[in-house]
Structures are given as C-alpha cells and as structure tokens.
Amino acid sequence: MTWHAKDNILGLRRSFLAPSLSISYKDPLHIVQGRGQYLYDGQGREYLDGVNNIQHVGHCHPAVVKAAQEQYEKLNTNTRYLDETIVKYAQELTSQLPSDLEICYFTNSGSESNDLALRLARHYTNSKETIVFGSAYHGHTEALIEISPYKFNGPGGNGAPDFVHTIPRPDPFRGRYRGPDSARGYLSELKKIIHQLKKNGQRIGAMVAEPVMGCGGQIILPKGFLKEAIERVRHAGGLYIADEVQIGFGRMGSHFWGIETEKVVPDIITIGKSMGNGHPLSAVITTRKIADRFHNGMEYFNSFGGNPVSCAVGRAVLEVIQGENLQKQALDVGNHLSNLLAKLKERHYLIGDVRGRGLFLGVELNRDLTTLEPAAAEAEQVINKMKEKGILLSTDGPDHNVIKIKPPLVFNKENAHFLSETLDHILTHIA
Ligand code: PMP
User: What is the distance between the alpha carbons of residues 116 and 271, in angstroms, rounded to a whole number?
Assistant: First the structure.
C-alpha cells in the first residue's frame, strides 16, 4: 500500500463514515497486519503495541484463529438449539469467579453487557436510582451514556439525569480527597447520596463501578473504599455491578479479576473486550437469585450473543491465558515496567504519578507538582513521538493527561525496556 492509498482511505472515511469516529495520532496509521504484541503498517513498519488491551493474548493468536475457523466451518447458529460449546464455556468462565456468580448471559459488546446488567439490577430492586464514580465510562448506548460521567460531563454531554448520583472520581492522586487515607472522604460523599435518597423516599437500584478505573485515568481506588462502599450500598438495598470490561482475564497480574484485587464480590459482573481477543464477545454473570427474578416471562434472546463461534473463541482465549501463563507474565512484566517507570518519575518533572496493576498502568503528566495542572498537550506530544519511534500508546482520563499502558499480555521485559528507554528519551527532549 502506498501513501496515496492512505489518503484514499481517509477520503473514503470522510465520505462514508460517521464524523464522530476518531482517529489516533496526528499522522494516522494504516495498520494492515498484527502478530503477538506487534502491528505492521502498509509500508511494512513494525510497531510495538502498548495499548490494545482487547487483543489480550496477542494479535491474531493462531490458536484463537484456528478455533474460530474450525467452528465456522462446522456450524454457527444461536442459543435456541442445544450446543456443547456454550455450556462448556459458561462452566469454564464461572469456575474462574466467586461461586455465587454462576449464571451467564452472553452478549456482543461491553455496552450490551452493562445495559443488560442495568436491566437486571433495576428489575431486581425495582429502582432506577444509580450511583456511579466521577469520570467513569460504561458504554455507548443511551442508558449507558446516562450513567457515564466521562460522557455526560464531556463534550456534547447533557449532564446527569436525576436518577444518576455521582461520587467524585475516587482518585487518590488528584481527586477531591487525596492520599492513602482518602477512602473516608469518598465514603462521606456516598453517605450524602444515600441520605438524600432516603430523605426523598427513594431506594438505590445499583452502584456501577470498575474495581480499577480505565477511561477515568488508570486509577487504583483508595484502599478499602470499594469494599466499604458496596457494604453501604447493599445495606441501603442496592446491588453492586462490577464493570470488568476493561481489566479482567489476568491483566491485573496478581489476580485474574479486578474484583479480587479489591477483595469484593459483586452481585453482577460484566466482562468483554479481551474475552474474545478482538472477536465481539462479552457477558453478564450474576447470581441465581437475580437471574430467577429477571425470568419474568419476557424472553432474553440475542441473535449473536452466545453463538457457537463466539464461544469457541472465548474458550480458546481462556486456554491460551492458562497454557501460556499470561497472568504470571502480566505480573512479572507489569512489575518490571512499573519499576522502570518509577525510575523515570525521579528524573522527569513532567511525571506526576505512575500507577496501576500488572499490565494496566498509567503515567500521569502534570506541569506542576504543587498545582497538579494536567499536562495534556505534552501527553499528546509524547504519544505522537512514541509512535514515530515505533511504540503505540494513548492518553486518557478526564483531562487527557494520563498515558495508558495496557498491551497484549505477551508483551515482554525487552519490550518494557524499549518502552521506558524511548519514553525517557522523549521526555528529556520535551524538557
Ligand atoms: N465499560 C468499560 C469500563 C469500558 O472501558 C468500555 C469500553 N471502553 C465499555 C464498558 C464499553 O465496551 P464496548 O466498547 O465493548 O461497548
């Protein structure tokens, strides 16, 4: 492919695709192939992928491709016929979860999962009142934009509907309450919300929250906050929906799920993204009691959710995570990279914070360590320069000043060195 071809694609995008789709980087990439932790552009240039968490076990993993192809050649239907693949997959998935989470609904995107989770919770509690964390993102449907401060408080957003109650972003680094003991501050905000609801004669439907925040800026919650928040929500009659769409399946390194890192058990968990390694596959998993209550005569049917090909892909992904010991790799490589980045923080004034777990890391850039003014333009510059040097990353957080690192789990220590050395060089240059 020539550069002319790249311009052509851009032109066709402008003509035929929605203008609200975004493109990464000042000079957009035309990626034509992927393998493991590497992507290749139309000119054959290799890029180290530090950001595509969806391709969890590596781009185009042969075992996943094979599983999809073999199942496609045999059969692809829907859940109205008996099929071994879906039941085996449900069994394998739930065996990775706390025992109360035993009933699966299969869907085709994280948004679909969260939408369904809201339906389950609202039906169970007979309440629409929803508590969320500031800056959180839970998906793109109408119902999810309504519970995603990242969107409703962002450009084009219309603010929160009256049934959505937001706890300020529980960010121990730059949030309303700071430091290791900041849980108390955020719990007091939750207490105010619960109190107000009670005063209005309303009850909580659900609290929806990620155990480790993604779009909110790679945030590790203040110690003990989530556990106590869930207890308070339950005490007030609400359910906890854990959104693990971005963080599950071993990425945390120390644990398979984010909920385990916070020592919590949700009433409903939603999973997706990495689950299908790029194939549209996601799920809602809940307790029998909640699922039974939802079984009120209205059928749950999903044309594609739980189809044999998707389930075969999901099973292959689980097998690869185990077979290639990828959770351990996330732990080892993630800790190694985290240490390298912490060393960079000592030398570069722009780095305000390095945080995360396993291969889910964030480097927050600030112009001033006292005011913590976000260095968004600098972060954008770093990302573009890293790309020029052959490493793909992105920025996020409400101020777009957090560099996100969430590569396929096959990312290795050599890759970690290349990333940190290149970042070191670029930050020196910027300074
Ligand atoms: N929840 C979280 C935490 C997410 O990060 C995302 C996607 N960024 C979603 C839900 C929505 O998932 P999808 O894009 O698959 O609809």
Answer: 12
Phi, psi of 269, rounded to the nearest 5 degrees: -120, 140
pLDDT at 1: 46
Section 300-307 average pLDDT: 97
CATH code of the domain in which 148 resides: 3.40.640.10
CB atoms within 10 A of CB 243: 31
Beta-carbon contacts of 417 under 8 Å, excluding residues fewer than 6 positions away, are 340
Residues in CB range of 156: below 8 A, 6 or more apart: none
Centroid of chain to Cα 121 = 21
| Same domain as 307, residue 333 | no
Is the minimum distance from the CB of 114 to ligand 1 under 6 angstroms? yes
Which residue owns the Cα nearest ligand 1 atom 2? 138
Ligand 1 in contact with 246 (CB < 6 A)?
yes
In terms of domains, do 164 and 227 share one?
A: yes
Query: Where does residue 142 rank: exposed (0-12), middle (13-18), buried (19+ CB within 10 A)?
Result: exposed
75/37 same-domain check: no
Q: What is the pLDDT of residues 331-382, one digit of tens each?
A: 999 999 999 999 999 999 999 999 999 999 999 999 999 999 999 999 999 9
Instruction: Examine the fold and report which residue of 272, 293, 323 is the final residue of a domain before the chain moves on.
Output: 323
Same domain, 343 and 314: no
Alpha carbons 404 and 394: distance in angstroms, whole number: 6
Q: What is the pLDDT of residues 124-166, one digit of tens each?
A: 999 999 999 999 999 999 999 999 999 999 999 999 999 999 9
36 C-alpha vs ligand 1 centroid, how far in Å? 22
Expressed in angstroms and rounded, the spacing between residue 272 Cα and the centre of ligand 1 is: 8
286 plus 305 within the same structural domain: yes
214 lines ligand 1 (CB under 6 A): yes
Phi, psi dihedral angles at 224 (to 5 degrees): 80, -10
Q: Domain range for residue 216?
A: 62-323
Domain count for the chain: 2
Domain boundary, last residue among 275, 305, 323: 323
Both 207 and 262 in one domain: the answer is: yes
Say whether pLDDT at 31 is over 50: yes
CA of 113 to the centre of ligand 1 (A): 9
Atom of ligand 1 nearest to the CA of 139: 11
What does the pLDDT look like over 35-45, one tens digit per residue? 999 999 999 99
Side chain identity at residue 195, one-letter code: H
Ligand 1 site, residue 139, Cβ cutoff 6 A: yes
> Are 317 and 370 in the same domain?
no
